[in-house]
TrEMBL record:
This is Basic amino acid ABC transporter substrate-binding protein. InterPro entries: Iontro_rcpt_C, Solute-binding_3/MltF_N. The lineage of its organism: Archaea, Methanobacteriati, Methanobacteriota, Stenosarchaea group, Halobacteria. The keyword Electron transport does not apply. It comes from Haloarcula rubra. One of its GO terms (cellular component) is membrane.
Length: 265
């Protein structure tokens, strides 16, 4: 249970420093010399910006909680970090299974449907869904049934879209009243414009939009979601390394520092 890559790395680091760590790790068979396309011992990460404060662009730069957290976690492993690739959210799982990236860090909820195609690290954040409306107070729904016959938005491929499809379409609203966006920023813009009357989105992201734009959380729909880093199903080595790294950054205070930095918690 505790016999993971990390403890070996810590041991090697103590004894011999970085050079020894890397060369020994390279022979350890962790990444497999049998070839996953020359990408052994490296991690290229994929994300979908426009999901503040988890990942967003600021002055052209990719920043956010997921960015800092994954980089801190990878630093605790034998893997070298190769950088970030950006996708729309619904392209992340295909990018991972096609080997374009090795890890997804995108506020991605661990769920059974995704678990069929990919694997996840241990959870690193919890969330429910928020129903966000314009802050002018004209429309103040308190439950899903109050959304009847209203145009509703969410990002394609998300669990927010899942709530709309499973709980609203065909019941409170028609299929054409659901507006699917490539990006939540566009959904929030359309909410401000009056093109939709509500957006279903993860609570911490809803709070961030509400702090910066003329929108507010009308109510929370409890889903009990947990975010994890996505890895390929056959990639036990990276999964274990990320889990060990996550528990280290939780123990050494880095995780708390980052939640304070990005959520003020
Ligand atoms: N947590 C939700 C999900 O997993 C939304 C994630 C959206 N992430 C993003 N980077 N746009 O479906």
């Amino acid at each position: 249970m505790s016999d993971r890559g990390l403890s070996r790395r810590q041991y090697l680091t103590t004894v011999g420093g970085t050079a020894v760590t890397l060369s020994v790790a390279g022979c350890s068979g962790d990444g497999g010399s049998g070839g996953d396309g020359g990408s052994e011992q490296t991690i290229t990460a994929g994300t979908a910006p426009g999901f503040p404060p988890f990942e967003m662009k600021e002055g052209g730069e990719l920043v956010g909680f997921d960015i800092d957290l994954l980089e801190a976690v990878v630093e605790q492993t034998d893997y070298s970090f190769e950088g970030w690739e950006e996708f729309e959210f619904d392209s992340l799982i295909p990018a991972l299974t096609n080997n374009n990236i090795d890890v997804i860090a995108a506020g991605m909820t661990i769920n059974e449907k995704r678990d069929d195609t990919i694997d996840f690290s241990d959870p690193y954040y919890s969330s429910d869904q928020a129903i966000v409306v314009r802050a002018d107070g004209d429309f103040a729904p308190e439950s899903l049934s109050d959304l009847a016959d209203r145009p509703i938005g969410a990002q394609k491929g998300t669990t927010g879209e899942g709530v709309v499809q499973d709980e609203l379409v065909g019941q409170e609203i028609t299929e054409s009243q659901y507006n699917a966006y490539d990006n939540y920023v566009l959904a929030i813009q359309d909410l401000e414009n009056g093109n939709v009357d509500a957006v279903v989105i993860d609570v911490p992201v809803a709070n961030t939009f509400a702090a910066n734009r003329p929108v507010e959380v009308a109510f929370v729909y409890e889903t009990g979601e947990k975010f994890g880093f996505g890895v390929r199903t056959d990639d036990d080595a990276r999964q274990e390394a990320l889990n060990a790294g996550l528990s280290t950054v939780r123990e050494d205070g880095t995780y708390e520092e980052l939640t304070q930095k990005w959520f003020g918690e």
